[in-house]
Amino acid sequence: MKMGKLILVTGYFGAGKSTLTREAIKTIPYLIYLKTITNRPLRKDEKEGLEYIFVTTKEYNLLRSKSKKWDHSEISGFYYGADAEKYNQLLVNGKSIICCVAPDLAIIDQMNYLYGVKSILIWIDT
Questions:
Q1: Helices 84-92 and 105-115 sit at what angle, rounded to 10 degrees?
Q2: C-alpha 4 chain-centroid distance
Q3: pLDDT band at residue 64 using 50, 70 and 90 as cut-offs
Q4: How far is Cα 111 from Cα 73, in angstroms, rounded to an integer?
Q5: Cβ neighbours of residue 20 under 8 Å, at least 6 residues apart?
Q6: CA distance 6 to 35
Q7: How many CB atoms neighbour CB 87 within 10 A?
C-alpha cells in the first residue's frame, strides 16, 4: 500500500489557510483533516469540533500525558496538539492528511519528524 501524504497549509494570520483547507476537504474525498486539540478560546467564526477540539488546559495535559506520540506546539501562550500515533496509522494506510500550521519552520520540522514523512508545504501569501 502507498503511504499517504501530509499536507501542511501555512501563512500568516488571515491569509486564507482555513478557507483553502475546507475547500480541499470538500473536493478531495480521500483527504482527512488533522483536527488540533487546543486550550485557546473559541473564536466567533469557529465551531466546536470542525477544525479544532477545544479543551481546558487540564484536559489538554491529560490527553498529552496519555499519548505515546503527541504533536505539541505553544503559540501565543496557548497549546495546540494532536495524537500523532493516530494520524501516523492513517498515513501508513494510504490516507492523506491536511492541516493548517503556523509559519514556523521548527513546528513544520517537528511535524515531519513525528509523522515520519516529508510534508508537502503550501504557503499562502497575502
A1: 60
A2: 15
A3: very high
A4: 10
A5: 9, 122, 124
A6: 13
A7: 23
| Mean pLDDT (whole number) for 24-28 | 92
The CA angle 108-33-126, to the nearest 5 degrees, is 60
Start-to-end CA span in the chain (Å): 38
The CA-CA-CA angle for residues 125, 108, 49, to 5°, reads 85
How far apart are alpha carbons 113 and 60 in whole angstroms? Answer: 22
Residues constituting the chain = 126
CB 111 within 8 A of CB 6: yes
Cβ pair 15, 126 in contact under 8 A: yes
